[in-house]
Amino acid sequence: xxxxxxxxxxxxxxxxxxxxxxxxxxxxxxxxxxxxxxxxxxxxxxxxxxxxxxxxxxxxxxxxxxxxxxxxxxxxxxxxxxxxxxxxxxxxxxxxxxxxxxxx
Length: 104
Hints:
Structural class: mainly alpha
CATH topology: 434 Repressor (Amino-terminal Domain)
Number of domains: 1
Number of strands: 3
Radius of gyration: 13 Å
CATH class: Mainly Alpha
CATH architecture: Orthogonal Bundle
């Protein structure tokens, strides 16, 4: 799975935002539920200084938890824990070896 933000925005260092966004079905769905711009959600996945480097901003975490409760979206505790990613040829490299960034 290729990342959308490989251009000037770079690749994110962490994957917390990608995991949580995936639970809601994508950036557009989460933006609708949070009543904010879809671009705001995309920027969480952009590298600094353009975005949040894959991390969800602290003020939004409680909002996301509330929206998840209201809409029956299961967010596991491990989804909130950011994992550091390293990249090689558009593939994240983790200590266990190369794998694709797939949200289930």
